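hey so u asked for the seq, here:
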Amino acid sequence: MIITEKLLEYTLKHQEPYEVEIPLTKSSLFIMVFPNVFPPISPFSYDSVPLAQSVEQYFNEHYDKIFTKSVLDIGSGTGIHSIVSAIKGAKKVVATDISPYAIDNINYNVQIKNLQNVIETRKGNLFEPIKKDEKFDLVIANLPFVNHPAKEHYEHWVYDEDYQSHKTFFRKVSSYLTENGNILIAFSDIGDMDFFENEIKKNSLEIINHKKYEKITHNWTIHTLGRKT
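ran it, structure tokens below
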């Protein structure tokens, strides 16, 4: 778990907001990262950037189908994936996070990008802030990868004890998908990849696409999922 400890140390050393550049296909997206918010770019993680690029690619490939559709971004952090969704044409985006620091960070970035009419922020864990009858065409999730107790609030950025968040996510996500809705979710072999893929199968989901990136001595994956047909 050395890499997660280094990531936490790197994140906590930032005591002032700072700007990062997110490379996309034809341009870059500049966003602010507040203190106490998980950074989308660091020397010790590589999940937020390929997930943002996968969101961009998803919209490029499904533009005609989802131009007027809705997106749910769980564990939004800085709001990067919500912002990419809105820029690419989503008509409704709900960005959720359990952290009040993240909610403030998302709201700031949304206002700077003038996307208040598209992106709505809601504080809460996983699907808690979502109404039972709400459905989304795309659910984006970037959950912590490592099965380990989290003693401090900031350790929830990287630790998911007994994978309770993942188990809850996979058990409930289908209830919030439209009929042909999809999921984009990041994971890494820093965690238990066998557990991750078994949860997909166990909850009647299937892998539509799977991208793997070898960075920082680990494999980082972006899965596109749908209901099993």
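Strands lie at 18-23, 28-33, 70-74, 92-97, 119-123, 136-141, 177-188, 205-215, 218-227. The domain at 2-227 is CATH 3.40.50.150 (Rossmann fold).
lmk if thats what u needed
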